[in-house]
Amino acid sequence: MAERLLFFLLALIVVSTAVGVVTNRNPVRSALLLVANFFSLALLYFLLSAQFLGVLQIIVYAGAIMVLFLFVIMLLNLGSPEPATFSEQGYRRPLAWLIALGMFALLVSQALVVAGTPPAQADPQVGTARTIGYALFTEWSFAVVVVGVLLTVGVIGSILLARRRSA
Amino acid sequence: MTLVDLGWALLRIAIMLGFLLGTLPLVIWLERRALAWFQCRVGPNRLGPFGLLQPMADAAKLFFKEEIVPANADRLIWALAPALSLFPALVAAATIPWGPNRLLTPVADVDIGLLYFLAMSSLAAYGVLLAGWSSNNKYSLLGGLRASAQVISYELGMGLALATAILASGSLRMTSIVEMQAEPLWGVVPFLHNWLIFTPWGLVGGALFFICMLAETNRAPFDLPEAESELVAGYQTEYSSMKFAAFFMGEYIAIIAICAIMTTCFLGGYLAPVNFSPIQTLAETQGGVFSVLATITVALMPPIWFLLKVFGLVFSFIWIRATLLRLRYDQLMNLGWRFLIPVGLVNLALLVVYIVFGWVPALVGYALVAGLYFATVGARRPPKRTVELVSQAQPYRPKEAHLG
After folding, report:
1. Residues A134, A60 share a domain
2. Spatial separation of the C-alpha atoms in residues A73 and A70, rounded to whole Å
3. Does A12 share its domain with A71?
C-alpha cells in the first residue's frame, strides 16, 4: 500500500517536471526541472528493485550530463529570462500536436490493455550489480564491445574537433 | 516493514545526523585553531575552554545577521542553492558502517553502497553551480563554473580509485568492504589487519582518492572555486546570514563524510590497527572484572577507532591547507585528466592482473610500469633551474640572518 502511494507520488512528480521542462521559458529552470525529473525517475527505478540502474541514472544523467548542460547554458549566458522567439511556420505546430497526441494515445491504449491484470512481481535479485554485470559480459558482450567502439570513436572525434583550431 | 524496524531505522538516521552535526562545530574549531598553530598565531581561544565554544558564537552571530539579496538575482534558485549544497552532504554518509553492530549502523546496508555515495557526491555540484549563477555577480559565476568543471573532472579519478576497493573486495556493499579488510595481512600476518592501503593497488588507489577528495570538497590546494585573492569568495560572495552558514556547514559535513569513505574503503573502517587485544586474553584466562572490561572495549572501541581515523584525515586536510599553495587552473585540469586518470586506469589493470594471475605477475607489472615511467617521463624532465632571486626574496631567512 505504502509502495503504491509512493509510486503515484513519484509518478506525479515525474510527469509534472517533464511538462515543466518543455513549458518553461527560462533555460536554467528548464534544465533544473530536467534534473528533478531524472532524480525522481531514479527513485521509480528503486521502487522496481532496479537499484543499480537507478543509481547509475543519478550518477550519469543527474550528476554528470545535466551539470554539463547547465555549465554550457551558463557559459553562453542563455539564462536571461527573455522569452525565446521561435519562427513558427504553418505546419510545425499542428505536426507537433499530432505527434504528441499520437504518442499519448499509444501509451494510453497499452496501459488500458494491462490495466486489469495484477502487477508482475519482480525478482529482487534482478536489479543487482552482479546480475547486470553477468548479463552484460556473457549474453550481451558483443553489444558491449560495439558500444565501446562507438564511445572511443566519439572521444577521438571530440578531441579532433577541439584541436582543429590550435593545430 | 514493521513498526520496530521503522523505529530502528529512525534511530540509525538520528545517530548519523547527530554525529555529523555534532562533530561539525568541533571540526570548524579544529580547523581555526590548527591553522593558527601552523601560522604561529593563537587562534580563537577566548570563549569556553580552548575556545571550544567559538563555533556556537559564530552560529549565533550568523543567525542574527541581515540577509541581503542581490538585485536581479534569480530569487527562487538563489534560495534553493544552499539547500542543494547541504542535502547531498547530509545524506552521503548513509551507507557507511562505523561499527560492527548492524542494528545501529549503517543507516541502509544496501548492496550498491559505494555507488550511492558517488551518486550523492555527484549531486553536490549543483549547489555551487546554481549559487554562482543565480547571484548575478561575475565573480560568483566564475566560481560556480570553475567548481562544476573541477568536480566533473575529479569525479572520474575518484571513481577509478574507488573501483580498486570494489574489485579487491568483490562487493559494492560497504560492510563487505570492511569485512574483507578484517582478514590477516596479505593472508599471512595474523596479528595485523589486511587494510587495503597495505597492498600496492590499495596504496596507489588510496593516494588517488586522497587527491580527488581534496578536489571534490573544493579544499586547498584545489580551492579555485572560492579563491579569495581573485574571486572574492567565489560562488558564496553574495550570500550572508544563515544561507552562508548553510554553505559553510555543507562544505565541512562533506569533508567529514568523504573522510569516512576513505577510512571505510582504504583504512580498514572501524577495525583496530592490530588484531589482538590484551584485555580479551586476560578475560579468557582470569575472568571476573576483565570480562566486563572486555565487553565494554568490544562495544566501544570500533567507533573510537573509526573516529580517530576520520579525524586524522580531517587534520591532514587542514595540514595541507596550511602548507600547499593553490594550483593554477591549467595545472588543476592537467593533474586531473592527464595524471590521475591514466594512473588510475593502469592501477586497475594491474589489480585485474593480480586477481587473475596471482601476486607475482602483479608485482612485476608494478615494477615494470614504475621503471618505464621513470625511464621515459622522468628522463624527459627539464633540469632543475636555480634562481638567484628566489633565495634572496625568501621572507624567512636562515637563523644567522635574523641574528646578524
Report:
1. no
2. 5
3. yes
A8 with A73, same domain: the answer is: yes
In the prediction, which pLDDT does B247 show?
Answer: 86
Q: Are residues A67 and A3 in the same domain?
A: yes
Backbone angles phi, psi at B366, to 5 degrees: -60, -45
Is position A44 within any domain?
yes
Residues 6+ apart with CB under 8 A from B354: B201, B361, B362
Same domain? For A140 and A75 the reply is no
pLDDT at B210: 92
Give the total number of structural domains in chain B: 1
Q: Do the domain assignments include residue A116?
A: no
Binary contact (A51, B111; C-beta < 8 A): yes
> How far is the C-alpha of A140 from the C-alpha of B75, rounded, in Å?
48
Distance CA B108, CA B387 (A): 57
Low-confidence ranges of chain A (pLDDT < 70): 77-89, 119-122, 164-167
The answer to whether the Cβ–Cβ distance between B125 and A63 falls below 8 Å is: yes
Is B234 a domain residue?
yes
Strands B184-185 and B189-193: antiparallel
Alpha helix (H) residue ranges in chain A: 2-23, 27-47, 51-56, 66-75, 92-114, 129-137, 141-163
Residue B344 lies in a domain: yes
Q: Is B152 on the interface with A (CB under 8 A)?
A: yes
Residue A8 lies in a domain: yes
- Closest-CA residue to A27 (of A69, A89, A88): A69
Residue B272's pLDDT is 78
Q: How far apart are CA A42 and CA B123, in angstroms?
A: 13
For residue A19, being part of any structural domain is answered with yes
Q: How far is A57 from chain B (nearest CA, A)?
A: 9
Residue A123: DSSP 8-state? P
Share above pLDDT 70 across residues of chain B, in percent, rounded to a whole number: 92
Q: How far is A29 from chain B (nearest CA, A)?
A: 8
In a domain, B373, yes or no: yes
Task: Give the up-direction half-sphere exposure of residue B291: CA atoms within 13 A in the CB hemisphere.
Answer: 5
Of B115, B130, B133, the CB nearest to A55: B115
At residue B112, the pLDDT reads 84
Distance in angstroms (rounded) separating the CA atoms of residues B262 and B310: 8
Low-confidence stretches of chain B (pLDDT < 50) are 404
B314 CA to chain A: closest CA distance, Å?
Answer: 25
Range of the domain at B330: 72-403
User: In this predicted model, what pLDDT tens digit does every residue of B38-62 receive, in sequence order?
Assistant: 888 887 888 878 878 888 888 888 8
User: By the 8 A CB rule, do B247 and B217 touch?
Assistant: no
Q: Which domain holds residue A40?
A: 1-80
A-contacting residues of B 114-133, CB under 8 Å? 115-116, 118-119, 122-123, 125-126, 129-130, 132-133
Number of domains in chain A: 2
Helix (H, G, I), strand (E, B) or coil at A16: helix
Altogether, the residues listed in chain B come to a count of 404
The reply to whether B14 falls in a domain is no
Kindly state whether A122 is in contact with chain B, defined as any CB-CB distance less than 8 angstroms: no
Confirm or reject contact between A75 and chain B (CB < 8 A). yes
Half-sphere exposure of B215 (CA within 13 A, CB side): 28
